[in-house]
Design brief:
476 residues; alpha+beta; Glutamine Phosphoribosylpyrophosphate, subunit 1, domain 1; Rossmann fold; seven-stranded antiparallel beta sheet; six-stranded antiparallel beta sheet; binds iron/sulfur cluster
């Protein structure tokens, strides 16, 4: 999901989407469509690497999937029955062509391509060590570190080298590796980011979210387990390994924001439908913070499902009071203060006929800096609403994320610096209520696994080397 605020963006930002297939004659086209379905996870670059079992072919570029692959001849050159793809969301300043994925390297054991979703928290330390030993890095991403570790490994086969390499990294990583022989999927032992397995005829598929399978008519098979390394072959059944040992599901730390905001509502991740969980978040929010309102509206599109849940639980009718402009790209630059100030008006339009003289409950998924919420309240007041009650379908964000999601530093997070009442006053709402962390974790539909809730003030599940991560090395 994009936002006009560029470096001043006021929403938590997605990281990346990954997709892979082995054993399908149209592998590159399938990957292209899979990336389309995962476009919401990253909009800054897209790429595909394919293989025909002998050679490997790549094409990457900056921009949306449709722009990068606008010339259909490009896909025809990506030969073979196996491919991996990547949509990237990068942190500010690292939107460079050299950082586009998948990365493809040649090394002593052959060729290997990699796509990464997440953030490796010890990447800078590993990189420093390798640079001191003479390694030369081509990119500024954490993902490249894994490829260097693979090349360093003295294990015999590529799957063993991959297993050896990933055992040295820490943090959040759902990764795909493609060689002429294998498609390998890995999920970190904490299980931060989703990764799902699918099948159609004799082809196997891996994707960040199951919505990519639905577009292709691929059958969803299962979610990968925490710490699972799966090897997919052309002719054999998948083989699974657990380089860190088998983990209990409740010991993991799946990113709970995948359910709150990142994943598409039609996806199935971590063992449950996002739509089901998100709707229950809205219902729980209505129980915790009822609103004396005539209508419930959503901040579209990401809050639609929670707003429906709020409406159903409260009995207050759901209306489309805000319309989102889908044609504003992430690259929109704000040349003047005036344009910055009307930011929310460019992104959202209010429907005066619905809002005028109404007491409005607005459901949003989160508040980051508070600037967008403030602008939205003004927009809705200007449309004639008599009262505005903001309801947030997540707990207050009080700490930055170091596991692959681009959030601002603590000093810019409004909830880390103001009380709920002060935030209400700042954004100009008549009331403000956040979903509680206990309420969120007690939802019946939320799979009973371990979750990361560090951005809500819980301990970070994987130790952060602050110095190395302060500048959040361009992540994958
Ligand atoms: S800190 Fe927040 S956004 Fe980051 S992984 Fe944990 S829950 Fe997800």
């Amino acid at each position: 999901m994009m936002n006009i605020f560029c470096s001043m963006e006021d929403i938590v930002q997605h990281n990346c989407g990954i997709f892979g297939v082995i054993g399908n004659a149209d592998a590159a086209k399938r990957t292209y469509l899979g990336l389309y379905a995962l476009q919401h996870r990253g909009q800054e670059s897209a790429g595909i690497v394919s293989t025909d079992g002998k050679n490997m072919y790549e094409y990457k570029g900056l921009g949306l999937v449709g722009d990068v692959f606008s010339d259909d001849k490009v896909l025809l050159k990506l030969l073979g029955d196996s491919a991996i793809g990547h949509n990237r969301y990068s942190t500010t300043g690292s939107t460079l062509f050299m950082n586009t994925q998948p990365f493809l390297i040649k090394f002593h054991a052959g060729q290997i391509a990699a796509s990464h979703n997440g953030n490796i928290v010890n990447a800078q330390i590993l990189r420093n060590e390798m640079e001191q030993n003479g390694s030369i890095f081509r990119t500024t991403t954490d993902s490249e570190v894994v490829l260097h570790l693979i090349a360093y490994s003295r294990r015999k086969t590529i799957p063993e080298m991959v297993s050896n390499a990933i055992s040295k990294v820490k943090g959040a990583f759902s990764m795909l590796f493609l060689t002429s022989e294998y498609l390998i999927g890995v999920k970190d032992p904490n299980s931060f980011r989703p990764l799902v397995l699918g099948k159609k005829n004799n082809a196997w598929f891996l994707a960040s979210e199951s919505c990519a399978f639905d577009l292709l008519g691929v059958d969803f098979v299962r979610c990968l387990a925490p710490g699972e390394l799966i090897i997919l072959h052309r002719d054999n059944e998948p083989e699974s390994f657990f380089p860190w040992g088998k983990r209990d599901k409740d010991k993991g730390s799946a990113c709970i924001f995948e359910f709150i905001y990142f994943s598409r509502p039609d996806s199935y991740i971590f063992g449950e439908s996002v739509e089901k969980v998100r709707r229950e978040m809205g219902a729980q929010l209505a129980r915790e913070h009822p609103a004396d309102a005539d209508i419930v509206i959503a901040v579209p599109d990401s809050s639609n499902t929670a707003a429906l849940g709020f409406s159903q639980e409260s009995g207050i009718p759901f209306e489309l009071g805000l319309i989102r402009n889908h044609y504003i790209g992430r690259t929109f630059i704000q040349p003047t203060q005036h344009i910055r100030e009307i930011g929310a008006k460019l992104k959202y339009s209010s429907v005066r006929g619905i809002l005028k003289n109404k007491r409005v409950a607005i459901v949003d998924d989160s508040i980051v800096r508070g600037t967008t919420s403030k602008q939205l309240v003004q927009l809705i007041r200007d449309a004639g609403a008599s009262e505005i009650h903001i309801r947030i379908a997540s707990p207050p964000i009080v700490a930055p994320c170091y596991y692959g999601i681009d959030t601002p530093d603590k000093d810019q997070l409004i909830a880390a610096n103001m009380s709920v009442e002060q935030i209400r006053d700042f954004i100009g709402a008549d009331s403000l209520g956040y979903l509680s962390l206990d309420g969120l974790l007690s939802l019946k539909s939320l799979p009973k696994i371990g979750y990361c809730t560090a951005c809500f003030g819980s301990p970070y599940p994987v130790k952060i080397d602050d110095k190395a991560n302060k500048d959040k090395m361009g992540n994958g």
